[in-house]
């Protein structure tokens, strides 16, 4: 006995006749009759009294129909949910993103995605690249958009954008008021606000060969880019940051100044698991990102 047999007897019960049941199931009456015969043979008794018009379930048959009705309804409900998921009528998506990737890349993709699939629940988690990569690897996040994490066979990392490093400073800072670009020698190393060494930005700067040693570390540190920008806005200091990070809040009081002799860029990647198939919802969102 299988689902086909159950659907056959429930269709007869619902429609009140073998002919209408066969039509509702899209089969010829002889096929339906044979399906019921197989089930009755396996059960060892008749499920319908065919002497009556319309045929009615026998007492054991009615009990069996009532006991199996929740199975049919549960299966149909699960199948409906599955089809809704395929059409992205519901479901969930957990995205990770570096703060500086949100405004210019992730937020526009989310806005467009929500117009197309408004019933999908989206959760956005912001953090540094290494922690986001760990969350993707363990399955907490479907994907992440961040700087490159440490090399791992658990992850696939696809580059989607690059932006150059420059100086972030207040708009009224002397270096912001210079025409054109500046040079590294124009920057006072003691005025730099450094990032936590675990961040991708800090690692890029520390490994860059043309950056003077005095620029690698200092007495003023911030845990995140957001904290850096808050300090810069308050006039506490300046920082070396990628352009998109400087423009994180579109704050007109903070300027991005090009550094002529600093040839350094930060890349952003779509980070996904290499060992786990991502959901069709995440696949569709990636298409929005890359478009």
From TrEMBL:
GO terms for cellular component: cytosol. It holds the Pfam family HTH_1. Keywords: DNA-binding, Transcription, Transcription regulation. It comes from Allorhizobium borbori. Gene3D superfamilies: 3.40.190.290, Winged helix-like DNA-binding domain superfamily/Winged helix DNA-binding domain (1.10.10.10). The lineage of its organism: Bacteria, Pseudomonadati, Pseudomonadota, Alphaproteobacteria, Hyphomicrobiales. One of its GO terms (molecular function) is DNA-binding transcription factor activity. This is DNA-binding transcriptional LysR family regulator. Residues 1-58 form the HTH lysR-type domain. The keyword Translocase does not apply. It comes from the Bacteria. InterPro entries: HTH-type_LysR_regulators, LysR_HTH_N, LysR_subst-bd, WH-like_DNA-bd_sf, WH_DNA-bd_sf. Belongs to the LysR transcriptional regulatory family. PROSITE patterns: HTH_LYSR. PANTHER family: HTH-TYPE TRANSCRIPTIONAL REGULATOR YBHD, NITROGEN ASSIMILATION TRANSCRIPTIONAL ACTIVATOR-RELATED.
